[in-house]
Structures are given as C-alpha cells and as structure tokens.
Design a protein that fits this description.
The chain has 7 helices and 9 strands; from the N terminus they run αβαβαββββαββαβαα. The chain is of the alpha/beta class. It has a 7-stranded mixed beta sheet, sandwiched between helices. It has a two-stranded antiparallel sheet with strand order 4-5. The chain binds zinc ion. The site of zinc ion has 5 residues, from loops.
Length: 263
C-alpha cells in the first residue's frame, strides 16, 4: 500500500517537473510504473501505425526466456496497446498484422502510407549477449540471460532533413516518456558497432552509418521508430510484459510521446 502511494506520488511529480525522477531503478523486479494515458484534445485523432514486429514468412523473431516466439509477443502487445490508445479518443491505430495476415515489411510501410499514418512504431523485443539454458516450467528448456535488461528506442538519420529531425524528435520523446513511466533504459553495451546513443539520452540509439539499416526506419515516409521493449532473454522482464498493468503503462508512454512529437 505504502509502495503504491510512493509510486503514485513519484508519477505525479514526474508529470509536473521536466527534470522529474528518472524511473527504472526498481525495474524489473518492483512494481513501479506510472499509469498515465494521454487525453483527447478535441482535435481529430492522431493516426498511429503500430507494427507487430516479425510475423512475415518464416521470420518469427527471437525465442524468449519463457520460450515465447517474438512474433507472438509483439502481436499480443500491439493488440493491447492499440485497444488502450483507441479508448483514449486521441488515436486511430492500425495494427500491421493479425487474423492470419503476415505482410512483408514493404507491405506494412506501404499500408501505413496509404492509410495516412502520421507516425510508425515497430514493436520488438531484443536479444543481447550470451544466454544459458534454464527451465521456466517443468518440461520446458529456454534460453536465459539477466545481464542486459531494459528498453531501447532505435532511430536513423536516413532521408531528408525534416523527416530525420521528426524521427529523432519522436525517438527522444519516447525515451523520455518510457523512462519517466519507470521502464529501465538499456545501457547499450552490446550495441557498440551497430548503434550509438542519441543526444546522451539513455535508451535512445541511432543506427551507425555504413550499417545495413532497419527497413522500416529507412523506408517509411512518416517518422518511424523501433522499440525494443525489453530483453527477451530476461525472464523477469518477459514476465512483467505479460502483465496488463505493464502493457497499459507502456501504451501510455507511447501515446504521450506520440502527441509530444507531433506538437
Ligand atoms: Zn525483433
């Protein structure tokens, strides 16, 4: 009870002060997530395209510490986030797949453009470092590593200046709202050759030039980001992301960042 009160107070303060407490110290073990959904402004809803990462051809993504394929996790999370954000009245959300549809990334980007999406968010979970085998339940053997928890937001400097700036603004806004919500930013130590920190903003990374880029960052005509929601091999984070409370808090962070980025 007391913990809940302190958590709520921390959340309120974080909402009022630009330099509010940086969350994450207690993640992933403690329940410390700020529940704050964006509010409809009376203007028309923002069109947000939500890509459930992977789920195309035989691209199923990683296998988590709970032996869940990434494509199943991202579809389930995208479905919940879409429902939460639509219910605020501030968003129209289109989810990239479901009901057996497994479009290519090119088809997703084209669909987002045709629909008039203002922002594009691709949901993923990350795999970092070396795993060892463990058993989350009898009869199941899965890979696990607790060494590199946390979220990362990925962006790129591709395209014309205005688009690259807008993409970066959205990524920085996401880093900020996710941290304030209580999610832990990944420190990036396994990213050395591929990504670098943006503006010293914990958890926000850009592709290094010369790297084979991430398609949705390169090809989308609207600001696009990839969110690695957590380390899939960390069983503590994988479990937290199954909780409705975590998903709702995450949706709130995405929604607040989207409105900030378009302001
Ligand atoms: Zn992925």
């Amino acid at each position: 009870m007391r913990a809940a009160f302190v958590s709520l107070l921390g959340g309120v303060l974080a909402g009022l002060t630009p330099a509010g407490p940086v969350g994450g110290a207690a993640w992933p073990e403690e329940a410390w997530l700020w529940q704050a959904l964006p509010e409809a402004s009376g203007q028309r809803p923002v069109r947000l395209y939500l890509d459930a990462g992977h789920g195309s051809g035989d691209n199923t993504g990683n296998l988590s510490a709970l032996c869940e394929p990434e494509e199943r996790f991202t579809l389930s999370l995208a479905t919940d986030v879409a429902e939460t954000l639509r219910a605020t009245g501030a968003f129209d959300v289109l989810v990239s797949r479901g009901d057996g549809r497994r479009p290519t990334y090119r088809e997703r980007v084209d669909e987002a453009t045709a629909w008039g999406a203002e922002l594009f968010v691709s949901l993923h979970s990350d795999v970092r470092g070396r795993a060892s085998e463990w058993s989350p339940e009898p009869g199941l053997s899965c890979p696990r590593s607790r060494h590199a928890p946390g979220f990362s937001v990925l962006t790129a400097d591709e395209g014309d200046d205005a688009l690259a700036r807008a993409r970066r603004r959205f990524a920085l806004a996401l880093g900020s709202t996710l941290r304030r919500t209580g999610f832990l930013p990944y420190d990036g130590k396994h990213y050395a050759g591929d990504y670098e920190l943006v503006d010293r903003s914990p958890g926000v990374f850009r592709e290094r030039s010369g790297r084979d880029g991430i398609f949705v960052l390169q090809a989308a005509s609207m600001p696009s980001v990839v969110i690695e929601t957590h380390h899939a091999l960390d069983d503590r984070e994988a479990r937290r992301f199954r909780e409705p409370e975590t998903r709702r808090a995450f949706a709130g962070a995405v929604g607040r960042a989207a409105l900030q980025a378009l302001r």
